[in-house]
């Protein structure tokens, strides 16, 4: 495979971080999770960043990490759900690699996040109740995820099926 960066995008709860780690073992690529990089770099969890600063600052950190990552090749990157909010991020990702979108409807996302053990990493994004928030955000972001992705795969599959599907995409489209 040519040197490349694979980016996983999609709403929170669609399994980007989980799939990224497992895929990295399968295809022998290193992996980076942008949220984890931010937490290590700034020594604060995401809830603390939002409490001490705001979402604008977090989006700035996200863009900063994304730019550093763009200098590394042969990695698979798990993005945070909001990465597509800044057009410059989408431009970077499009120019530097292939974008895989893990899609899901709000029902599945809510189910996945119901017993979320990672609340500190996923503070609420609005003042709306959780269910309404997810429905609203998905509606706002859906087209962007769709438009910038090179490949889409349903998150409503077993982890093994998703991994097989992505491997098949790589095999048929990225290996020359
Ligand atoms: N394909 C899947 N089937 C069932 N559960 C999944 C699947 N992918 C992820 N999960 C679970 O969903 C939750 C959110 O996964 P995570 O990888 O943190 O998503 P993201 O990084 O997209 O927010 C975790 O509890 C994870 O174990
Ligand atoms: O959707 C979002 O705006 C966010 C998603 C989270 O990442 P995951 O998508 O990995 O949960 C994390 O970056 C932060 O809480 C903001
Ligand atoms: Mg994640």
TrEMBL record:
Binding-site residues, ATP: 13-18, 122
Keyword Transmembrane: no
Free-text cofactor note: Binds 1 Mg(2+) ion per subunit.
List of residues binding Mg(2+): 17
Keyword Kinase: yes
Pathway: Metabolic intermediate biosynthesis; chorismate biosynthesis; chorismate from D-erythrose 4-phosphate and phosphoenolpyruvate: step 5/7
Catalytic activity: shikimate + ATP = 3-phosphoshikimate + ADP + H(+)
Stretches that traverse the bilayer: none
InterPro entries per record: P-loop_NTPase, Shikimate/glucono_kinase, Shikimate_kinase/TSH1, Shikimate_kinase_CS
Cellular localization per UniProt: Cytoplasm
Keywords in alphabetical order: Amino-acid biosynthesis, Aromatic amino acid biosynthesis, ATP-binding, Cytoplasm, Kinase, Magnesium, Metal-binding, Nucleotide-binding, Transferase
Biological process (GO), any one: aromatic amino acid family biosynthetic process
Named cofactor requirement(s): Mg(2+)
Enzyme class: transferase
EC number from the UniProt entry: 2.7.1.71
Amino acids binding substrate: 35, 59, 81, 141
Any one GO CC term of the record: cytosol
GO terms assigned for molecular function: ATP binding; magnesium ion binding; shikimate kinase activity
Family: Belongs to the shikimate kinase family.
Function: Catalyzes the specific phosphorylation of the 3-hydroxyl group of shikimic acid using ATP as a cosubstrate.
Subunit structure comment from the entry: Monomer.
HAMAP family registered for this protein in UniProt: Shikimate_kinase (MF_00109)
Protein name as it appears in the record: Shikimate kinase 1
Gene (UniProt): aroL
């Amino acid at each position: 495979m040519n040197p490349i960066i694979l980016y996983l995008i999609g709403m929170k709860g669609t399994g980007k971080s989980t799939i990224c780690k497992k895929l990295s073992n399968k295809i022998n690529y290193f992996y980076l999770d942008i949220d984890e990089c931010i937490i290590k770099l700034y020594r604060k969890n995401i809830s603390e960043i939002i409490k001490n600063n705001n979402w604008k600052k977090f989006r700035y950190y996200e863009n900063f990490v994304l730019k550093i990552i763009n200098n590394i090749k042969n990695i698979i990157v798990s993005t945070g759900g909001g990465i597509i909010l800044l057009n410059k991020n989408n431009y970077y990702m499009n120019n530097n690699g292939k974008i895989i979108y893990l899609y899901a409807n709000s029902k599945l996302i809510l189910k996945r996040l119901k017993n979320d053990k990672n609340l500190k990493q996923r503070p609420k994004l609005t003042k709306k109740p959780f269910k309404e928030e997810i429905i609203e955000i998905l509606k706002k972001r859906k087209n962007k995820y769709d438009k910038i992705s090179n490949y889409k795969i349903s998150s409503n599959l077993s982890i093994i099926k998703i991994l097989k599907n992505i491997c098949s995409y790589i095999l048929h489209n990225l290996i020359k």
